[in-house]
Amino acid sequence: MRPVLVVIGGLPASGKSTLAEALARETATPYVRVDRIEQAIVDWTALTHPVGPVGYAVAHRLAAEQLRLGLDVVVECVNPVAVTRDAWPGTAEQAGAALVEVEVVCSDAAEHRRRVEQRPTDVEGLVKPSWAEVLGREYEPWTRERVVVDTATTAVAAAVRRVVAARETARTSSSTA
């Protein structure tokens, strides 16, 4: 059975970690979170935030290893610009895996702001961005086909079902979603 790389991206506090964790639990799939990788790098080296591409580089290597073992992988990261997004298809292809890209959005600005301002830090040591930082963050529009999940209008369980369906379609297809 062909493994599938599911890459979940979106702005901070859009709901991508919630979706990624629920998907990983529901499907018993390895889960790689770039925030945790980057914080570990900061905790164990002389580097400070932002660490640049190193967190993504580690995520690619970890995901590729799991895919080569025949396992599906869920990767969660902001994935804000084309250069960060464009490497994932190559990671999947080199491992003989299919790819499902998911963009998580929160269309309700008041709800998004509430999440940014009230969510607890779940990665020890990581300082979450402020609402102004989220609004000012570079975030390029996506240009490839992807699954878009609006967490302002879609329950987590329904979003998981959508991504699972896309994963199964990608597994049996020769193209990426």
Automatic annotation (TrEMBL):
Q: Which domain of life is it from?
A: Bacteria
Q: What is the lineage of its organism?
A: Bacteria, Bacillati, Actinomycetota, Actinomycetes, Propionibacteriales
- Pfam family, any one: AAA_33
Which SUPFAM superfamilies does the record match to this protein?
Answer: P-loop containing nucleoside triphosphate hydrolases
Q: What is this protein called?
A: AAA family ATPase
Which stretches are transmembrane? Answer: none
